[in-house]
């Protein structure tokens, strides 16, 4: 209780926070505060320097944010995790804390266009160099390594062509050379793959996607296999200010609680849609790890818990047909994102990979007739019906 002798205007400023007594909150509370008060300066100093210490300033640590970080560290089997305000923020933290001017990166061929854009910017600004290799070719990785190679960057399931990286083999080559492996596992989520268990050093997620799962928040997560890299990532995130606000984090936590249920249904739906697409004459090829003709089908069976809910397909009639399809869906919606409860479609060459030349698209395996689907949790019969009527327009 504030001192009743104080002026009303002063008492209005100093509203006391209730202590969490009398029961344990079942939901993680939202600590919507930017700063925390303490009774001595040393406690504040320690909090400003320790990612596991008390709280002083929410850019460096917040109880709601830390709850998400702890949850993701447990799901990934990590020493620690750092939450960020977006998936690109997570990638920037994972790489930025490790790179120096003149560093060399080995990058999986055919990855998210936003990551490619970030790497192009870093190459121009920092004098970095990159070498592309296939994500399932450890011999090519070994040949690409240089004395100044800092990291290998892979995607568990690539965007948009669903290439499955051979994480055990690629991570083993990198580790033998003393090089870090960074894996974007957004398309998989921890329910489908846990890269740290397969030898990776750092795993990143766009929490905007499957982790939150409801298309209502942006966020990211970077999880680390060891304490040293975790602390370096936390310091880089705090310094650059890419950490998230408590309310956004709370939304991600709420979504995380249904991740297992959502991924199970979405994975099952994706297999059904892949079968429908493969049987349709308008479709030239379906890209989903569940398909026996997928290049990494056997690898996916070995290292994934399911095949993921992302798929793409090539329409035989090319770009015109792809645009006709995306314009003709009714239940499925056009949107440049993924991982929500609703099924979404997008035309990669004009959206996520719009900056790619024809040569770069071809190198990534993307055609102008490629369409991407993020499969949601709707009734599969409704999705098949919408898919079929849209394909008739192609």
Descriptors for this entry?
single chain, 394 residues, alpha/beta, Aspartate Aminotransferase, domain 2, Aspartate Aminotransferase, domain 1, 2 domains, seven-stranded mixed beta sheet, five-stranded mixed beta sheet, 14 helices, 38% helix
Number of H/I helices? 14
> In percent, how much strand structure appears in the residues?
5-15%
| Largest sheet report | 7 strands, mixed
**Which residues form runs of ≥5 with pLDDT under 50?**
none
CATH topology assignment of the largest domain: Aspartate Aminotransferase, domain 2
Radius of gyration: 23 Å
Provide the CATH architecture of the largest domain.
Answer: 3-Layer(aba) Sandwich
| Domain count | 2
Globally, the shape reads: globular
Judged by helices, strands and strand pairing, the structural class is: alpha/beta
- By CATH, the superfamily of the largest domain comes out as Type I PLP-dependent aspartate aminotransferase-like (Major domain)
Total beta strands: 12
Helix content: 25-40%
What does it look like?
This protein has 394 residues and is α/β, with parallel strands linked by helices. It has 2 domains: 41-256, Aspartate Aminotransferase, domain 2, CATH 3.40.640.10; 259-391, Aspartate Aminotransferase, domain 1 (Alpha-Beta Complex), CATH 3.90.1150.10. The protein is 38% helix and 15% strand. The chain is built from 14 helices and 12 strands. The protein has helices at 8-13, 41-49, 63-76, 87-96, 113-126, 138-144, 167-176, 227-240, 246-256, 259-278, 297-303, 319-328, 358-363, 380-391, and strands at 80-84, 104-108, 129-133, 149-155, 180-184, 202-206, 220-224, 283-287, 310-315, 333-334, 344-346, 370-374. Strands 1-7-6-5-4-2-3 form a 7-stranded mixed beta sheet, sandwiched between helices. A 5-stranded mixed beta sheet has the order 8-9-12-11-10, covered by helices on one side. Helix 7 links the parallel strand 4 (149-155) and strand 5. The longest helix is centred in the C-terminal third of the chain and has 20 residues, at 259-278. It starts with 7 loop residues before the first helix and ends with a helix. The model has no long low-confidence stretch (mean pLDDT 94).
């Amino acid at each position: 209780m504030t001192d009743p002798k104080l002026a009303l205007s002063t008492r209005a400023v100093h509203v006391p926070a209730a202590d969490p007594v009398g029961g344990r909150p079942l939901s993680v509370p939202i600590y919507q505060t930017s700063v925390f008060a303490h009774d001595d300066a040393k406690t504040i100093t320690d909090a400003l320097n320790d990612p596991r210490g008390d709280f002083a300033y929410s850019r460096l640590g917040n109880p709601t944010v830390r709850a998400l970080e702890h949850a993701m560290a447990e799901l990934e089997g990590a020493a620690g995790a750092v939450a960020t305000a977006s998936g690109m923020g997570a990638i920037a933290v994972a790489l930025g804390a490790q790179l120096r001017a003149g560093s060399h990166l080995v990058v999986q061929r055919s990855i998210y266009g936003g990551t490619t854009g970030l790497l192009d910017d870093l190459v121009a600004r920092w004098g970095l160099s990159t070498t592309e290799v296939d994500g399932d070719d450890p011999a090519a990785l070994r040949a690409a390594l240089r004395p100044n190679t800092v990291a290998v960057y892979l995607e568990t399931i690539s965007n948009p062509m669903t290439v499955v990286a051979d994480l055990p083999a690629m991570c083993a080559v990198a580790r033998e050379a003393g090089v870090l492996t960074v894996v974007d596992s957004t398309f998989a989520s921890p329910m489908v793959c846990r890269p740290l268990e397969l030898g990776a050093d750092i795993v990143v997620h766009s929490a905007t996607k499957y982790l939150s799962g409801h298309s209502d928040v942006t966020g990211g997560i970077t999880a680390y296999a060891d304490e040293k890299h975790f602390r370096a990532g936390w310091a880089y995130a705090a310094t650059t200010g890419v950490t998230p606000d408590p309310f956004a984090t709370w939304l991600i936590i709420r979504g995380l609680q249904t991740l297992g249920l959502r991924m199970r249904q979405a994975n099952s739906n994706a297999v059904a849609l892949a079968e429908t697409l493969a049987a349709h004459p308008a479709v030239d090829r379906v890209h989903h790890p569940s398909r026996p003709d997928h290049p990494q089908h056997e690898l996916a069976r070995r290292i994934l818990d399911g095949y993921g809910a992302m798929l793409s397909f090539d329409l035989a009639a090319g770009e015109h047909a792809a645009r006709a399809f995306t314009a003709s869906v009714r239940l499925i919606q056009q949107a440049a994102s993924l991982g929500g409860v609703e099924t979404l479609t997008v035309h990669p060459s004009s959206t996520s990979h719009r900056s790619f030349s024809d040569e770069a698209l071809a190198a990534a395996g993307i055609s102008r007739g490629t369409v991407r689907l993020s499969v949601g949790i709707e009734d599969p019969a409704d999705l098949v019906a919408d898919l079929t009527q849209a394909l008739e327009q192609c």
